[in-house]
Amino acid sequence: MIILLEEHKAEVNRLLANEVLKTAEEADWVIDGYAVHEEMYKFCKAIRKSNSKVRFLPKDTRGGVANAMLMHLENADYAYGSICVGFNWGKSQADNLQYVVQHNSISNDKYKDYPYTDRLYSTNIDTAVKNVKRYCIPPTPVQVAASMIDQFSRATNDIIYNANRDVRTIVPDLRDHYDDLVSELKNLRSQNVVFSTQLFSNLFNELDKLEEKRNAVKSFTRPVYYVQVDLVGDNQFIHLVEAEAINTKYGAGVNIPKNAMTTLPSNDVPEDVMGRLSVLFTLQTGQHIPDVGMRISEKMFWLYRDTL
To answer: Of the N and C termini of the chain, which has fewer Cβ atoms inside 10 Å?
Structure first.
């Protein structure tokens, strides 16, 4: 369960602007600057007592306050689990509250006939905090890379689409040059064709180049890095996760070995890697540059380890 925070924070800001979510100044109970109801406040405080590094961001609201929260680490670009405080309508008033913990490592067969198998429910807050501690463990960069591959694959598939488009768009120009087309058809040779007009010579030379590029893109296997930047105090560290390869024809054909991660101080990162990473730092989230890589979030990137 990896949720990028940048887009989600934008949605939270929209809720604040539309007054769906109260501001901290209007609320009786506040966690990390966001309005929550009393039981959610108690739940968050209990979790933070167990893990002081966890931070919270509203996931869902009810009555102007957050009743579900995403959990993330300070300065991280992604959330890795969520909690909720709800009501167990079939129980007595004393057992009415339910503390819910959601994480993809949870497998709750009690709800196998419903889309809730990744959640644990408890009427006891201490039990719920233990569930958070047991299941909601921040992922390693290797695990984040594995979960983010689909987004990167879509970007690499765009390369194929654009190459196909470039080949297709050059051909319709022939319809506007009927006389030249007839002349060239009469001039065809069985093997080595010599075109009598400059138009066709240039056109087919360009077409050959575009088709060669398209075929290279379709069949090329691209080794990549997943890169995650972390700040520890005043020191910057770079996590490099080597993906075995990515084939741009099939998109998600990536193998990430468990021992694929290297962590280096930013000063020790190889110059060619840091050079490409510096280019990606100038991009907006979601932007992709062929032969360089893609920016996933503020501190998360995909980086090609070769060039076409």
So the answer is: C
Distance of CA 182 to the CA centre of its chain: 52
Residue 214 CB-half CA count within 13 A: 15
User: For residue 152, which phi and psi values (nearest 5 degrees)?
Assistant: -70, -35
pLDDT band at 69 (very low <50, low <70, confident <90, very high): very high
pLDDT digits (tens, 9 = 90+) for 187-216: 664 566 666 777 767 776 776 777 677 776
Query: How confident is the model at residue 12, as a pLDDT?
Result: 92
**Both structure tokens of 203:** 């056109």
| Structure token digits, residue 80 | 């890795």
Residues in the chain: 308
CA distance 55 to 47: 10
Per-residue pLDDT at 252 exceeds 50: no
* Helices of type H across the chain: 5-17, 38-50, 125-135, 141-170, 178-186, 198-219, 271-280
Q: Tokens for 207?
A: 């077409």
Separation between Cα atoms, residue 179 and residue 197, nearest integer Å: 10
- Residue 88: pLDDT above 70? no
Alpha helices, H only, 58-112: none
Q: What is d(CA 258, CA 281) in angstroms, rounded to the nearest whole number?
A: 27
Higher pLDDT, 178 or 306: 306
**39: Cβ–Cβ under 8 A, 6 or more apart, which residues?**
85, 97
Would the pTM of this model clear 0.85, i.e. be above it?
no
Per-residue CA distances from 102 to 49, 70, 236 (Å): 19, 9, 31
CA separation, residue 156 to residues 90, 166, 169, 237, 296 (Å): 50, 16, 20, 27, 13
Q: Roughly how many angstroms between the first and final C-alpha of the chain, as a whole number?
A: 33
**Alpha-carbon distances of 169 from 172, 216, 235, rounded to whole Å:** 6, 19, 50
